[in-house]
Automatic annotation (TrEMBL):
It comes from Arenimonas oryziterrae DSM 21050 = YC6267. It comes from the Bacteria. Pfam families: Acetyltransf_1 (PF00583). This is N-acetyltransferase domain-containing protein. Residues 3-158 form the N-acetyltransferase domain.
């Protein structure tokens, strides 16, 4: 199993975009499959922010995570950047892959000099708290209750 930049696997963009859009399309007005695809195609051009990491087992795509400058426009005044689009294939959940992706995103943020990394989550605040994230606000996003969370990224190499 390996974590890698999406830039090394641009052919995975359509599959990832389909996962992401099915999961989160309802949260963002105007965020069509085409927009989701274009964002990931852009991420696949770089290893600095905004970018996306993928988790692969051989040829099988298992998940992804992104670190972006802005996730939801309504929350942009809270800070930046944001861990976004954490996703693990349904059949591969509950094996620590989500945790590995979150840790890789935090490491990526540390390597890019990020002082504070944010995220928002409708239902997984307890999952992120286990991984060292702190809840900083409860709010609403397009009628959905979300928790805004933050972490000070520290590289495991430091
Ligand atoms: C959320 C998601 C990424 C978790 O992926 P996963 O690979 O199942 O997570 P892990 O196996 O790494 O979980 C790590 C630990 O957190 C626990 N955990 C997982 N979800 C949790 C939750 N909602 N609340 C509390 N603990 C949770 C697991 O039981 C595991 O505990 P353990 O280490 O004691 O066994 C996955 O369910 C997913 O892709 N969901 C759909 C997209 C989504 O909701 N993304 C998050 C958006 S904020």
């Amino acid at each position: 199993m390996r974590l890698d930049y999406l830039s090394n696997h641009p052919g995975r963009v359509p599959a990832l975009a389909a996962w992401h859009h099915a999961e989160w399309g309802h949260l963002y007005s105007g965020w069509t499959l085409e927009v989701a695809t274009a964002e990931l195609q852009d991420h696949a051009t770089r290893r600095t922010l905004p970018t996306t990491l993928v988790l692969l087992d051989g040829d099988t795509l298992l998940g992804s995570v992104s670190v972006v400058h802005e996730d939801a426009a309504e929350l942009k005044d809270r800070g930046s950047p944001w861990l976004a689009s954490l996703y693990v294939d349904e059949d591969a959940r509950g094996q620590g892959l989500g945790q590995a992706l979150v840790e890789a995103a935090v490491e990526l943020a540390a390597l890019n000099g990020v002082e504070r990394l944010f995220l928002f989550t409708p239902e997984h605040a307890a999952f992120y708290e286990q991984l060292g994230w702190e809840a900083v606000e409860s709010t609403q996003l397009n009628g959905t209750a979300v928790t805004v969370m933050a972490i000070v990224p520290r590289s495991r190499a430091q």
